[in-house]
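Human: For the file, kindly provide a plain-text protein record giving the amino acid sequence and the backbone structure tokens, at your earliest convenience.
Assistant:
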Amino acid sequence: MKNVNSLADFTVDEVKGILLLAEKIKKNQSAYAHVLDGKKLYTLFEKTSNRTYLSFSIGMEELGGRSYNQKWADSNFTIGDLGSEVKYVCRNVDCIMGRFKKAETTWGFMNNATVPVINGCDNTFHPTQALADMLTLYEKLGRFETKVLYIGAKNNTYNSLSEIVTKLGGTMYGLTPFSQVMAVGQDFYDDLKKTGHYIELPTDISQEELKKVVADVDCVYTDTWVDMEFFTNPAYAEKKESIINMMMPYQINADLMAGTDTMVFHDMPIHPGFEITQDVMDAHLETILDEAENRRHAEKGLLVYLITGKLDW
């Protein structure tokens, strides 16, 4: 039994196998419509979601299984012993996906579960987003070895993207003026640097030098500067304003992208006028939507592997 906390839990061959299986299922969905017949997925949401909710629910259904979704606030996890509740859930389902605020909760599930548990995004990693990102890059480029430039805050998405790009032999460039609150230490980034495939750009990089990097990479990636759970929180307004003022010089705009055929990725939800301008978003929206749709397809490959233990379908 395997859990999915981060992509460090998988070998290179496993990651490629999951992605190739996902591509195979996407191209011939009817051939895999019954591969998970009778199987059940439990999804639990402590954080808001559009893509994670829809992609796992519909993906499980398309594979012949069923999905049971619950909000954390409506569950007995808020009032009872976590370990015993996890063990109870496992008596009913074949896989669990949890989207939690803190890594401690993710680990609480993984340490007590008797079925595979998927980290659907916490304050450390977002592995299923990274699988979708790499599936999209592979579809567009025909290779796993890619060059990606991420501009924004160090966060869960950045961490998992850095893992998958470096693991599969690509080069990850990070321009990250600040970090969101995370349960990830500096040793994580030091280990990435040791791969020789991870480069942190200086925050005072000139526009001229940054444009050279943009022109050289396959993809420029950005994400919200403010964690989605705080974006509309009035109590967070002052800090939000401070972050926006600090980050505006790093906005992805037409000038930065001019003269390149570099793709732009965003894991959504998008905030036009902040991390990306409206015109650049509009120009690259179809690619961004491909990336978002691939959450479902990548997760289908992952679900089949976790529940059946097989990649050779």
Observations:
- The radius of gyration is 19 Å.
